Amino acid sequence: MPETFASTVVDWYHANRRDLPWRRDGFTAWGTLVSEFMLQQTPVSRVIPRLEEWLTRWPTPADLAAVPPGEAVRAWQSLGYPRRALWLHAAAVAITERHGGVVPDDVEALLALPGVGDYTARAVAVFAYGARHPVVDTNIRRVIARAVDGQGEPPPPSARRDLAAMSALLPHDLPAAAAFNAGMMELGAIVCVARSPRCDDCPLAQRCAWRAAGYPAYEGPRKAVQKKYEGSDRQVRGRILAELRASHIPVTPAELAAVWPDAPQRDRALRGLLEDGLAVAEGDGYTLPS
């Protein structure tokens, strides 16, 4: 089964994959790393224009490492989860200082970079360098849960279980393994989607355990649902950061008071930004880190 399963996905991927910047010939390992940082919990459509701007401005890790971290936060703009910008800047500094400005190809070396977790390390090693590793994201977990395990959705993430499940399906041939990783991801992103999956267009429809079982409802444990954004501290943090990005001089407390009316929540959000290093006190106001 694994060989036939994998070849079906690989053939489908080569015929149906989207034309995305990080899949084009000549795309750099640095570009792959930047794209993986940006794609965490952010839709592809929002990432592509920001990625192109970023790589035009900072085409190498050394270029990004040479500017203050606040510039990375400013350029991040509306991508969300702006700590990723700080981590990416710190990773650029580490790559420049430890690896001569070249993104490493080894998973362990990649894991040692600031902000790089297991998924990102494996994704860079596989998609930038062609190494053979299982890569597991939310989309892949959903495809395996349905097609292999017969469940409508995957249980909460487990690195050991998820990597073992993907490893069992991974082809031995290096190019096929990379294409299979990408294909499973693509399949989950555009066909085997969370809601209203397009089963009639799925190359695995005839071997899908969930479909064969009559699409039973999922009754297992679920991942915790994130609280809504509107009115949350995350929204207040975003408002404050937007104000700091728009100004190249310190923003005063009075100016920040106009950003959000709830003073205790505003102060709590500002303290969080200061603790995370996304804002710094300067004089009588606050700026991005320098």
Pick out its properties.
single chain, 15 helices, 290 residues, two-stranded antiparallel ribbon, mainly alpha, globular
SSE order and pairing:
Elements: H1 2-16, H2 29-39, H3 44-57, H4 61-65, H5 69-76, H6 83-98, H7 107-111, H8 118-127, H9 138-147, H10 159-167, H11 174-190, H12 209-212, H13 233-246, H14 253-257, H15 263-276, E1 280-282, E2 285-287
Antiparallel strand pairs: 1-2
Helix pairs in contact: 1-11, 2-3, 2-8, 5-6, 9-11, 13-15
Helix/strand order? HHHHHHHHHHHHHHHEE
- Work out the number of β strands: 2
Please tally the helical runs, counting DSSP H or I stretches of 4 or more residues.
Answer: 15
Percentage of β-strand residues: under 5%
Strand order of the largest sheet: 1-2
Estimated helix fraction = 40-55%
Spatial shape: globular
Q: Report the radius of gyration as a whole number of Å.
A: 21 Å
Characterize the quaternary organization of these chains: single chain
Describe the structure.
- This protein is an all-alpha fold.
- It has a two-stranded antiparallel sheet.
- The longest helix has 17 residues.
- The radius of gyration is 21 Å and the shape is globular.
